[in-house]
Amino acid sequence: MKPAFWARRAHKWIGLAIGIQALLWMASGLYMVSISIHVIHGDHLAKSAARPLSGAPMREASALAAQFPGMTGFRVKRLVDRVVIEVRHDGRTSLVDAVTGEALSPLGEAAARDVAVALYQGKAPIRSAALIDKAPQEVATRPVPLWRIAFDDANETTLYLSPDTGEMLAKRHDLWRWFDFLWMFHIMDYDARTDVNNTLLRVASSIGFVFALSGAWLLFYSFRRRPAA
Amino acid sequence: MTPWIRRLHKWFGLLVALQFVVWTFSGLVMSLLDHHRVEGEHHRAPVAPDTRAWPVDAASPAQALAAAKQPVQALDTRRLLDRPVYRLAFQDKEWLVDAHTLAAVEVDAATALAIAQADYVGDGVPGTPQRLDAATLEVRGHAGPIWRVDFSDEDSTTLYVSAQDGEILERRNDTWRWFDIVWMLHIMDYSGRQNFNHPLVILLAAGGLWIALSGVWLLVASFRASEFVPARWRRRRALTVLDTNGTELRSIESHDGDTVYVAMGRHGLQLPSNCGGGQSCGLCEVRVCGTPPEPTAADREHLGDSRVRMGYRLACNLAIGDAARIEVAAGASLWTECTGTVERVTAVTPFLREIVLAPATPPGSEFQPGAYLQVHVPGYAFARGDIAHPEHHRDDWAALDLPPTLANKEGVRRSYSLALPVEKCDGRLTLLARFSPGRQHGKKHPPGKGSTYLYSLKPGDTVRYSGPFGDFALKPGEREKVFIGGGAGMAPLRAMIHARLDAGATERIHYWYGARKAREAPYVDEMTALAARHPNFSWHLVLSEEAEASNGLVHEVAHARLLRDHANLAACEFYLCGPPAMLAATRKLLAQLEIPPERIAFDDFKI
Ligand SMILES: Cc1cc2nc3c(=O)[nH]c(=O)nc-3n(C[C@H](O)[C@H](O)[C@H](O)COP(=O)(O)OP(=O)(O)OC[C@H]3O[C@@H](n4cnc5c(N)ncnc54)[C@H](O)[C@@H]3O)c2cc1C
Ligand code: FES
Question: How many beta-carbon pairs under 8 angstroms link A with B?
Answer without folding.
Answer: 204
